[in-house]
Amino acid sequence: MPRARTRTAVLSAGLALTATLGACTSEPQPHAAVPRAAARPDPRPVAEAMLADTINKINQTGTAHTTMTGSLGVVGQLNADGAVRYRGPQADLALDGKTRNTRTEKLAVSIVDDVGYLNTPLARPNASTPWLKISQDSSDFGSKLLSPALDQLHESVDPRATFSGVEQATRIQNSAPDTVDGRPTTRYELRILTTKAAEIARDEQQRERFQQAADDGEHELGYQLWLDERGLPAKFAATTQVAQAGEVSLTSTYRDWGTPVDIHLPPAHEVGVFEDLPPMAQPPR
């Protein structure tokens, strides 16, 4: 889950201690220990209780309709409507909308059991298979190229993927009353402390991601979360630098929590993959 940027600055300092000897008959005087300045406590509230309550309510409610807007990096600007179904740690997703880069293209996405299916003229295996299968553990070119961006899209619709396991490492920068689509909400500016998150995260990929962020000098990662009067997400916003895709900045707006949703897999005969590199394509690093 569920990628950092910047670099680590290493500061090295040397301390030279000098002692002045007294008279020949005087014993050397011991140096008094200089107490180290205590680290200032972080005055920001820990978000653990609030996030635990929100995650629990998402799990209990189970479904929502969503609108997703923002940038998918090299894929372009995204504007789509869809639905999400939360099943244990899984979040199944279906989106239907448009992307715009040099031109506007239709886009459909289904993600079920962490396997993605993408339908867009920008990434179509051939005329008879309009859907491209994208799996994180697959070795085909399409999966290697597009799974990072699709993973981020997946996480952007599921706040649990961001905060589960690192609630204690998340601080509330500030909060204020707000509205989302005319509904009263509370907007939270949240910061994940990367070093602490890398220590406590239960998921290995989470630990690696937060440790890489800390190593690169990214001491905090920022997110925005709007909660409605029931304590359920009304909106969630995140910006991340994603391999092969560039900066992915997405905002999910939620409505109709608990209503039935319909998430279909595309027909198997309409699904293909990019086994090899398209002409002139460069392999992802």
From TrEMBL:
<dbReference type="InterPro" id="IPR029046">
    <property type="entry name" value="LolA/LolB/LppX"/>
</dbReference>
<feature type="signal peptide">
    <location>
        <begin position="1"/>
        <end position="32"/>
    </location>
</feature>
<protein>
    <recommendedName>
        <fullName>LppX_LprAFG lipoprotein</fullName>
    </recommendedName>
</protein>
<keyword id="KW-0732">Signal</keyword>
